[in-house]
């Protein structure tokens, strides 16, 4: 009977792992596709990103429901409970990453093909590449329960903040050079904040991995870039 319960619990955890892996793959592709849609004025791809978000939302609900049922049936303790709590946390962060990617895609649709400044997107694309890299690394860290890799992602949070600062200054320069750039660059400012938030969610997942494995929080304060943009008027667009 005990062996049966253990095997059933392992099957529950495996099911959660598979859904998290699927969510991670979808969220990562959404981030890449949203930036491609923005830089290439690809409305079809932008609409595809927006449509994909519903699948991510559905997976998050499935994970939460499965996690609650598993807790009710198995009554796990200690590290086993952390596995389930970790899955709920990661699913929440991945769902939010999808929302942020969707916001970028929606912003791309608003911009259309008018008054584009291709060189203004270069810094934002680089920032998005780093955010995507952090997402990939932290999802690998979660799958492998690799606290060293998770901590490396956590420590790179300041890198995203610094890149956002650089993008912010570049876009202001483009706006001052030619007032016709203002509308386009203002849209990009919102996109850069969304990318910065994607980096924050990668960092959240890194903290969850460390908690899942050790039962403790990462020591010290989360690394931050040179400026605190939480007080900046440019914010994320509501999903």
Question: In words, what does this structure look like?
Answer:
There is one protein chain. By secondary structure, the chain is mainly alpha-helical. Helix content is 80%, strand content 0%. It has 7 helices and no strands. Helix 4 runs antiparallel to helix 6 and helix 5 packs antiparallel against helix 7. It is elongated and about 65 Å long. The N and C termini lie far apart (47 Å). The model is unreliable at 229-239 (pLDDT under 50).
Write the layout of secondary structure elements.
Layout: H1 2-40, H2 43-74, H3 78-111, H4 122-144, H5 147-155, H6 157-177, H7 182-214
Helix pairs in contact: 1-2, 1-3, 1-4, 2-3, 3-7, 4-5, 4-6, 4-7, 5-7, 6-7
Task: For the structure shown, list the relevant keywords.
239 residues, mainly alpha, 7 helices, elongated, disordered C terminus
């Amino acid at each position: 009977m005990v062996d049966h319960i253990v095997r059933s619990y392992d099957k529950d955890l495996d099911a959660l792992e598979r859904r998290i892996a699927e969510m991670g793959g979808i969220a990562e592709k959404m981030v890449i596709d949203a930036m491609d849609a923005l830089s290439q004025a690809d409305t079809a791809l932008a609409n595809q990103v927006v449509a994909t978000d519903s699948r991510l939302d559905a997976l998050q609900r499935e994970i939460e429901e499965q996690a609650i049922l598993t807790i009710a049936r198995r009554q796990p303790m200690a590290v086993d409970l952390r596995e389930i709590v970790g899955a709920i946390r990661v699913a929440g962060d991945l769902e939010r990453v999808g929302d942020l990617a969707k916001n970028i895609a929606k912003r791309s649709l608003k911009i259309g093909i008018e008054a584009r400044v291709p060189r203004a997107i270069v810094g934002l694309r680089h920032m998005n590449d780093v955010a995507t890299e952090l997402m990939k690394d932290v999802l690998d860290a979660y799958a492998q329960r690799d606290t060293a890799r998770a901590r490396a992602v956590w420590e790179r949070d300041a890198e995203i903040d610094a890149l956002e600062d650089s993008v912010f200054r570049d876009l202001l320069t483009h706006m001052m050079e030619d007032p016709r750039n203002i509308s386009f660059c203002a849209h990009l400012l919102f996109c850069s904040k969304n990318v910065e938030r994607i980096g924050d969610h990668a960092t959240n997942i890194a903290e969850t991995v460390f908690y899942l494995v050790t039962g403790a929080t990462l020591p010290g304060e989360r690394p931050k870039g040179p400026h605190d943009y939480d007080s900046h008027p440019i914010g994320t667009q509501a999903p």
